[in-house]
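Input (structure):
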C-alpha cells in the first residue's frame, strides 16, 4: 500500500491511530534536511521512518532552503561560473 500525507508533525493522536490501523510498516520522509530538522516527525510505534531527501545538489549534498543555505549555494554557483571563465 502507498499512502501520502502531510507533515506528521501536524498530526493529532487520532490520526496516528488511523495510520496504525492501515498496517503501514515504513514511512519515507521526502523533506529536505532543513525541513525535517525544523519540524521533526514523532516516532511511531511499530513503524520505521526513513528520511530520503529528493532535493540534492549535483555533488549529492542535500539542498538547504534556509537563508544561509541559499547564500552558500549562490556563492558555490558564482565560483563555478568564475572558474569556467578562467578556462574558457
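Output (sequence):
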Amino acid at each position: 500500500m502507498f499512502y501520502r500525507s502531510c507533515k506528521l508533525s501536524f498530526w493529532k493522536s487520532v490520526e496516528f491511530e488511523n495510520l496504525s490501523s492501515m498496517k503501514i510498516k515504513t514511512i519515507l520522509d521526502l523533506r529536505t534536511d532543513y525541513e525535517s530538522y525544523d519540524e521533526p516527525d514523532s516516532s511511531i510505534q511499530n513503524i520505521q521512518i526513513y528520511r530520503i531527501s529528493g532535493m540534492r545538489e549535483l555533488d549529492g549534498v542535500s539542498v538547504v532552503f534556509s537563508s544561509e543555505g541559499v547564500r552558500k549555494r549562490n556563492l558555490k554557483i558564482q565560483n563555478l561560473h568564475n572558474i569556467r571563465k578562467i578556462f574558457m
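Notes: The longest strand covers residues 26-29. The helical segments are 13-21, 33-38, 67-87.
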